[in-house]
Amino acid sequence: MKQFGMPQRNTKSKKINCILAGQESKSCVLTEGNRLRKIWVILCVLILCTSILIIHISLESIKLAVETPNGNFLTEITNSTIQRGIPYAQDSNPHHLMNAYVPEGDGPFPAIVYIHGGGWTSGSRENYNIVGSFYAKRGIAGFSIDYTLTTQNNTSWPQAIQDVILAICHIRENSAQYRINPEKVAVMGDSAGGHLAALVGTLSGNESFLARIENNLTISSRVCLVIDYYGPTDFQFIGEHGSNFNPYGLVEKFLGDATYEMNQSRWKEASPATYITADDPVFVIAHGTRDSTVPIAISESFISKLDEAGVETYFVEIDGGIHGFSDEENIRVRYVLDPLLKQMFNLH
């Protein structure tokens, strides 16, 4: 597999079709597995299609991925500690908590802020415990955050993105305490967390729905890298495809039961695609071709807009992948992600 370093900013995303055809192949597409794996994939698709809510499938299986000699992977270099339940805002909101995964040593370390998925209605910071520890042992501090969730009676828009920005600003403001480099902060999210991560990457900070928190912040929430696993990042694209197109119903609920026809401006306001500009950070987007919960066409629409603006983008297309990757599929993403982290974070 070709190693992907940090090329100059360009106007075309780098699309990596994930086909596994031996370790020496330059493409990364996975072949069909054995009969049992096929059955397992079909069952997962059926479960996802019939669930009332998005089934949150975390990235924890990354720990099982076997590193091959041909991969330019980050390697374990240290131990790490986990600190749980750290407040990132001084208020009574029970969601304003995070877990920190800190490498041993003096630092300062680069950092990744992890945002869990769950259809904006479920999930927690605990979902990233394994991934956070995994990268902390490779010299990258991590912070897995909770954020306000949508309930039957209350929407979490725009509170959810306000929470994420509050957390990033808190982490950066307390960089000395956490032994991190405030100039090297990335954000990673899956599914609904991918949506929020993408918003962090495209928002300018001057949007009206951020006024309540931005007036009290003097620290930037800008990140250098966005890592989005199968997030619904283009709400206008979803809305235009109608109510029978997943994840239309979840977006509608997230936005306070507002249909696209009823309130297009609200859908556009909450969409990362709305705010894309040429100075956005680098994006890594991973999506499976058989994802029925968040179809890959949504990421393709978002990426086309990033390309048009000239944003440096890496698109890892997992052939046959569903909403949540297998061990094998996660390792294919790391073929692209780890060399990029090495370059951007100056890791060895």
Can you lay out the helices and strands and say which pair or pack?
Blueprint: E1 14-20, E2 29-30, H1 35-50, E3 80-87, E4 97-103, E5 109-115, H2 129-136, E6 141-145, H3 159-173, H4 175-178, E7 180-190, H5 192-202, H6 211-214, E8 225-229, H7 235-240, H8 248-254, H9 264-269, E9 282-288, H10 296-309, E10 313-318, H11 327-345
Parallel strand pairs: 1-2, 1-10, 5-6, 5-7, 7-8, 8-9, 9-10
Antiparallel strand pairs: 3-4, 4-6
Helix pairs in contact: 3-5
Task: Give a description of the structure.
The chain has helices at residues 35-50, 129-136, 159-173, 175-178, 192-202, 211-214, 235-240, 248-254, 264-269, 296-309, 327-345, and strands spanning 14-20, 29-30, 80-87, 97-103, 109-115, 141-145, 180-190, 225-229, 282-288, 313-318. The chain has 348 residues and is an alpha/beta fold. It has one domain (14-345): Rossmann fold. Strands 2-1-10-9-8-7-5-6-4-3 form a ten-stranded mixed β-sheet, sandwiched between helices. 49% of the residues are buried. The model is unreliable at 1-11 and 18-69 (pLDDT under 50).
